[in-house]
Amino acid sequence: MVRAMPPRFYLATSKTTGITRAELAHIAAWIGADPHYTRPLPTDRPGLVINVENMRLFAPGRKPAPWHPGMAHWRLRRPSDRLPEIMGVEPGHSVVDTTLGMGHDALLLARAGADVLALEQQAPILFYTLDGMWHYRPDLARNIRAMNVEHGVWLARAPAKSVDHVFFDPMFPRDKGGESDTWTTLRTVARPGPRLSGPVLLDAVRVARRSVCLKLAPLEPAPVIEGAPPLRIDGSKRLHFAVWDLTGAAPQ
Predict the structure, then answer these.
(1) Contact (Cβ atoms closer than 8 angstroms) between residue 241 and residue 130
(2) How far is CA 106 from CA 8, 52, 201, in A?
(3) CA pair distance 252, 250, nearest whole angstrom
(4) Architecture label for domain 72-245
(5) Which of 94, 108, 142, 177 sits between 20 and 30 A of 35, alpha carbons compared?
(6) Nearest Cα to 203, choosing from 171, 228, 224?
(7) Helices (H), the chain
(8) Strand 34-35 to strand 240-245: parallel, antiparallel, or no bridges (unpaired)?
(9) Burial class of 188 by CB neighbour count within 10 A (0 to 12, 13 to 18, 19+)
């Protein structure tokens, strides 16, 4: 089944940024958006507006949303985080975050000392998230490289055993409540792919040396994929993961 393409983004600036029309056009072309020079802003499609202090994501029917670290802000205040512990991430390990999204997990993996390659299929979302991460924690953002590519395409082309870990965090179905305004806005413009498929997981197992990890939605069962190695479930009822350990020694 062919998925419908999302509406094309526009890119605009506030008057105080000092960005010229030529510069705006150059940035817009770089991320595959349409430059918008006047007001009012379009109301029928998503867009990004660059301000002096941040960038805001606009979506039809939603409030403008600046990038926000969400729960990663509180998780980063703790000495360690469960995600890199579950995956067995150590300083210097390479991790592919296959779905950058808001970048929260990428920040936590970078804080654990990993060299993170983050993949994002929508260039405007990639631009928005990188800008937010660099404003929030430049010390961690410098350890995160990013590519505008669909993760299945990247994994299919990557050499065998070329990274230590592969991490999947697909966008979950809409929550019943408690979701931030930024996440709600992002859902209206994101292009979520299907849940993890067998061929994509097997490519991840081929590419990773140490582990493949899939974040599961609350109460979601782990996928059963023919040909995949044994998995274990780790985490809590609210936040749990399916982990395929490829070293033969699961982390404690």
Answers:
(1) no
(2) 26, 25, 19
(3) 6
(4) 3-Layer(aba) Sandwich (3.40)
(5) 142
(6) 228
(7) 21-31, 72-75, 82-87, 104-111, 123-136, 138-141, 151-157, 181-189, 198-207
(8) unpaired
(9) middle
CA distance 73 to 126: 20
Please give the DSSP secondary-structure letter assigned to residue 118.
Answer: E
φ/ψ bin of 18: left (φ > 0), alpha (ψ from -120 to 50), beta (otherwise): left
What size, in residues, is the chain? 252
CA-nearest of 114, 128, 104 to 185 is 128
Cis check: omega of the bond before 40, within 30 degrees of 0:
yes
**Domain spans of the chain?**
10-66, 72-245
Q: pLDDT 10s per residue in the chain (252 long)?
A: 455 566 899 999 998 899 999 999 999 999 999 999 999 999 999 999 999 988 999 999 889 999 999 999 999 999 999 999 999 999 999 999 999 999 999 999 999 999 999 999 999 999 999 999 999 999 999 999 999 999 999 999 999 999 999 999 986 554 544 455 565 666 666 665 566 889 999 999 999 999 999 999 888 888 888 899 999 999 877 788 999 999 974 444
Cβ atoms 106, 167 nearer than 8 A = no
Distance CA 57, CA 83 (A): 28
Structure tokens at 62: 């939603």
